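Input record (Table S2, row 463):
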Amino acid sequence: MSSVSIAFLGATETVTGSRFLISSPKSKVLIDCGMFQGAKSDREKNWLPFPVDPTTIDAVVLSHAHLDHCGYLPVLSRDGFAGKIFTTKFTRELSAVILHDSARLQTEDAKYALEKHFSKHNPPKALYGTPDVEKTLKQFQVTDFHTRTKITDDVFVTFYPSGHILGSAFVLLEVADRKFLFTSDLGRNNHPLLSNPDLPPASGVDVVVTESTYGNRVHETAPKVFADELTAAFKRGGHVLIPAFAVDRTEVILMALRELIDTKQIPNVPIYVDSPMALTALNFYRTGIKENAPEIRNGVSEKWKSADPFDPGNLFQMQTTEESKSLNDLSGSSIIISASGMGTGGRVVHHLEHMLPDAKNTVILVGFQAAGTRGRSLEEGQSKIKMHGNWIPVNAHISKVESFSVHADSDELIDWLGKTSAPDVCFVVHGEPDGQKALRDRLVNQLQWNAVIPKTDQVFSIN
Ligand SMILES: [Zn+2]
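Output record (zinc ion complex):
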């Protein structure tokens, strides 16, 4: 019998900081290496020493390019991790964009904190910089979907399309004689560009590690809500701001707007994408569609062979800071899509500051808003929000459209997980406590699974 263990180094009782360490008799493999985001108490965890000496880790498996899954890799490499980071082609491409942006933001924040004297570090320092990102990117090793790949002496990995973002995968890890299934972030069956998540193996999995972001919720299905919200916003006469994750959500929103404009459900107003990172990501989606990549939905490449799926004819791509600032002086109705999706940083913060005080404007939240973020404060109806040291009154209309989520909801998770036979144990991670508990209860009651919510740094041996 082998001695294999799993340690939960993040994404416990939170949706960020995904890091799971598998130890076998011959190797140590880390599944994802994400940054903690959201509440200050979570963000501070990024500054703690990594709980395992990075020089002892043999390989990393990266499920997708979101920062809460890849954002800590530059620290791991800088602090001595010298192995390979196995991932898919577009996860490598998008991780490069996201990690470079992260390094830039952190360096800028550190400089700003130094000028304003409000850093806790003296002098303020960035968690990592561009050289660290460049070092970690050299360790990336691209692996095809559906290809069983040996990554250490006794560990094999296979990536399967998970329908969450371009390049995203759920992961089957064979460790000695044990099989682990990591859902990572599981997508849904209605993505306009990405194919549905593959089905899990029908049997033979010993351990499942599942996300539970929406473990206690079921998404609304009516796309009409979006059209209604936009129509009401244009009647108020102001502008519409949609904070959106730069990678994937921007693409999905643009596709939805195009559909509404093409079918004349909303007027043909100008659409501004104001996030350099989102614009770079858009280009990778265009490439994926052109190449008919394995994770692209059937028929999408054929349909958009000679047209840009993201531009209904009035798309403006704002690259420079000057272009971004010019959006403060728009006349008539318009839609601005800007990152970050939870209002924690990026150009959207300036747009929120500018637009929230005016009751004519509308902010539409289209993604999960983690605890402690400005997006969550808006979602909860707070009347003022702190930005750049000032309290900004929230007079704009705030609405929420959940149907754009690229995470499976509670019903979809149960349905998908139920397609594999009961494992010895299922660990429920990547959720806030209510979501984790609700999903655990459904796994126990509906599927009769042995389901456990791990605590931070808890280690389980798998025998
Ligand atoms: Zn994700």
